[in-house]
Amino acid sequence: MATIRKRGTRYQVQVRRKGQRPVSKSFLTRVDALAWARNAEAKADRGELASMDYGLQTVGDLLRRYETQIASKKRAYSAERYMLSLMLRDPIAAEPLATIRTGVIAEWRDRRLATVGAGTFLRHLTVLRHVFEVARKEWGVPIPVNPTVDVRKPKAPLARNRRLKPEEETALFAACGGCLNPLIEPIIRLALYTGMRRGELLSARWEHFDPEKRTLLIQMTKNGHPRNVPLAAPALAVIERLPRSNYGRLLPVSDEAVKLAWKRLIKRAYIVDLHFHDLRHEAITRFFERGLTVPEVALISGHRDVRMLFRYTHLRAVARQSG
């Protein structure tokens, strides 16, 4: 029997017969959906339902198509490509789509949690869930229910609240003197003075720097919304000391080079468990300590959801003097 459901602007048809692999497909009009359903039911009556295949036999087939058609068009493609590659090397890639179930996802979960933390696994699960949703809703793959929905998730780790201690900051900039790349120190200072992400700093361009208005326009942001970052005096001074060009990036360094330099830097400074992203956390927290309001900090940091912004506001206790 054929089932037709409207999902958004499309009609999804699914035909199931006992002993045969179910098939489904999406259409823009109900008329086309009904016509396809009648043809599929006729094939089902002849036991030919399995012949209506679209080349997606396994979870691995699904992952590869998703990488080519969806992930490759995202700004965060490199991170997602890495997650997909791990899934493709896992036994889950060989699982037939016709029999995929929550238990298979649970087994994959247990294998991943044996090697990665809960936070990393949850990010991978989010990607896999989206893969199945795209397959069901857009590609017409016959998966009645997303198999990731009911899988038990590990408890998410507490939000990181690492602060940069004054003595660590001193040691960090002292260790910058040993960096072969002279741009590493300006990158770190700008991260600490502006709260900008590493990717935002490395994509910043000279033509978007306005010394008169003391702003820097960032076009490539994590949430896809460009923003003008106001520059306080320390940040402005750092930019004005950079080697100047009429066009091009302020900081022509690769992301990988910064990652490697950061690892060597904190090792020389004898600093433990400090991530580059912790500088953004520190900068945003200092904005609040200086008395800026939530809307003002959100304008600088680019947060569109203030609930996310509150994760950064671990204020260091300050003794108040009565007067």
Descriptive report:
The structure is a single chain. It is built from 13 helices and six strands. It is mainly alpha-helical. It has three domains: 2-51, no CATH class; 59-137; 166-312, Intergrase catalytic core (hpI Integrase, Chain A, Orthogonal Bundle), CATH 1.10.443. The strands form two sheets. The protein has a three-stranded antiparallel sheet, with helices on one face. It has a three-stranded antiparallel sheet with strand order 4-5-6. β2 (10-17) and β3 form a beta hairpin. α7 packs antiparallel against α9 (233-240). The protein is elongated. The termini are far apart. Mean pLDDT is 84; it is low at 317-323.
How would you summarize the topology of this molecule?
Blueprint: E1 2-7, E2 10-17, E3 20-27, H1 30-45, H2 59-69, H3 77-89, H4 102-113, H5 118-137, H6 166-175, H7 184-194, H8 198-203, E4 209-210, E5 215-218, E6 227-230, H9 233-240, H10 255-268, H11 278-289, H12 294-301, H13 306-309
Antiparallel strand pairs: 1-2, 2-3, 4-5, 5-6
Helix pairs in contact: 2-3, 7-9, 7-11
